[in-house]
Design a protein that fits this description.
The chain is an all-alpha fold. Helices cover 73% and strands 0% of the residues. The structure holds fe (ii) ion (2 copies).
Length: 135
Amino acid sequence: MPIMSWNSTLATGIASIDAQHQQLVVYVNDLYDAMTQKKGREVTGKILTQLVDYTVKHFAHEEQWFAKAGYPDTQAHVKEHVDLTNQVKAFGAAFASGKATVDSELMNFLRSWLMNHIMKSDKKYVASLKAAGAS
Ligand SMILES: [Fe+2]
Ligand SMILES: [Fe+2]
C-alpha cells in the first residue's frame, strides 16, 4: 500500500511541474516501501538520496520560473524550500551516520509537507507562472 497517491487536488495544470510532483510522490512511496518491507540501510539510503536530489532539482525548477515570472511571493516560497531542504539533508546525514532510521514519523512528515506545500504554496504561483509561459 502506498502512503500517498497522486490525485487531481494536487494538480497545478503546469505539465512540467505536475510531472515532477508525481515523481516526488513515487519516491516518497518507494521510501515508504523500503521502510515497511524492511529493506536494508543501503537500499533505503539510495532511495533517500534519490528523493533528496530530486527535491532539490524540483525546487530549482520552480525557482527558475519564479525569476522569469517575477513572482511576487518568491521570498516566502523559497524559504519553505530552504527549510525543507535543510531538514531532509540533516536527516540524510543522521541516517548515513546510523543515528536515524526511516520511520512512520518521518514518512508522515514528508507526506504532509509535500501535500500541504503543493496545495497551499505551489498553487499560489500557478497564474503568475502560466502568464510567464510555464508549461
Ligand atoms: Fe513543487
Ligand atoms: Fe514549491
